[in-house]
Write a structure and sequence with these properties.
It contains eleven helices and 14 strands. The protein is α/β, with parallel strands linked by helices. The two termini are 36 Å apart.
Length: 396
């Protein structure tokens, strides 16, 4: 089996499994005052320091969450609520049109259910959010903006945004800025303090750690209204008993991934480039999407004209190659990718995509396997064609 869906999740590192297994056999609630509780708390706090070193922030700025989705929700909703509570004029939320649904949907919810005004930042043809596009979205008088959220590295097409350049724009107006950096730590040198954001989301299972754990990095001067109320854990930002084994596994995986990043990026970039060259030889009409320069090393995303992405995915899966379409399914009807629509693709093209995302365990034989089975999959998918949409596509 050739696993080429590492943007969805990565295999757990053996070191992370070992670190978690050791702690799983020991009792101890990190909030308890007895010896077992103190031991668990020590493991959590040591892990917090390790995470902080890996992403360039202070340990007090690390808030553990149940993953990237929760971190994004806390940041987008919590900052918007906090800013509106402090200044009733701040009723607007501004976000990139190419965001992951973990940001896209909370932003929509704030507009639909909480009375916020929503402004979407236009993407360029490579999936990039530019400072000029951000300025246009902010408008002439952005004093009504409570929070801006722009993804650091796009989960579908791999395009990397220049977050520091974007925060330079919002800093002029004192606007809070959040970035979804879930796809970034495995492939980019992250330094929270240099990005200029007040909040950043990361996740364990994207870096060889366990599912169900992540972190929201929050600057000391950034306040959020909590979504969950209870025991007041994690600076009263995220109440709930801390999962010490998962936190230790997360920290271990993130630390190891960061230490091996340079070597992994060089090796995977060569594999990715080989994949792209050979796919384009097999399918000259395919379109390689996203930025050719500002891009995650492991991402190869294509439009295959005349092929429904879901059909291609299943045909490849039957031949032992696992990848992703990067689009959602609504009631069993394949929907166009909102990211591709934002980049200017038409409905059919935005349903004819495949994302191949490599990882630290990807080998040349995985690429060779894909190239072996892809021609017949494309041929069969083209014979089936792309059915007409029965519902209007959802756009940001």
């Amino acid at each position: 089996m050739a696993y080429l869906d590492n943007a969805a999740t990565t295999p757990m590192l053996p070191e992370a499994v070992a670190a978690m297994t050791k702690l799983l056999s020991e009792p101890g609630n990190p909030s308890s005052l007895h010896a077992s509780g103190r031991k668990a708390r020590r493991a959590v706090e040591e892990s917090r320091e390790r995470v902080a070193r890996a992403v360039g922030c202070g340990s007090a700025e690390v808030v553990f969450t149940a993953g990237g989705t929760e971190a994004n929700n806390i940041a987008v909703k919590g900052i918007a609520w906090d800013q509106r509570n402090k200044d009733p004029r701040r009723i607007r939320v501004v976000a990139g049109s190419t965001e992951h649904h973990a940001v896209l949907d909370p932003v929509r919810w704030l507009g639909d259910s909480e009375g916020f005004e929503v402004t979407w930042i236009k993407s360029d043809a490579e999936g990039r959010i530019t400072p000029a596009a951000l300025r246009e979205a902010l408008g002439d008088d952005p004093t009504d903006v409570g929070v801006v959220s722009v993804i650091l590295a796009n989960n579908e097409v791999g395009t990397v945004n220049d977050i520091a350049a974007l925060t330079a724009v919002t800093r002029e107006f004192g606007i809070r800025f959040h970035t979804d950096a879930v796809q970034a730590p495995a492939w980019l040198d992250l330094n929270f303090s240099e990005l200029g954001v007040c909040a950043m989301s990361i996740s364990g299972h994207k870096v060889g750690g366990p599912h169900g754990i992540g972190a929201l990095i929050i600057s000391r001067d950034c306040h959020v209204t909590p979504l969950i109320h209870g025991g007041g854990q994690e600076r009263d930002v995220r109440s709930g008993t801390l999962d010490a084994p998962a936190i230790v596994g997360f920290a271990t995986a993130l630390e190891i991934t960061a230490s091996r990043r340079s070597e992994t990026v060089a090796r995977v970039t060569a594999l990715r480039d080989d994949l792209v060259t050979r796919v384009m030889q097999i399918a000259p009409d395919a379109i390689y999407t996203g930025s050719k320069t500002d891009r995650l090393a492991n991402n190869a995303h294509f439009i295959f004209p005349g092929c429904l992405g879901d059909s291609l995915l299943m045909l490849l899966d039957a031949q032992g190659v696992e990848c992703s379409v990067g689009s959602a399914c609504n009631a069993g009807v394949p929907q166009p990718s909102h990211v591709l629509l934002a980049m200017g693709a038409d409905d059919d093209a935005a349903r004819s995509t495949l994302r191949f995302s490599l990882g630290s365990t990807t080998t040349q034989s995985d690429i060779d396997k894909l190239i072996e089975v892809l021609p017949s999959a494309i041929e069969r998918a083209k014979r089936a064609g792309v059915p007409k949409l029965t519902t209007a596509p959802v756009r940001a």
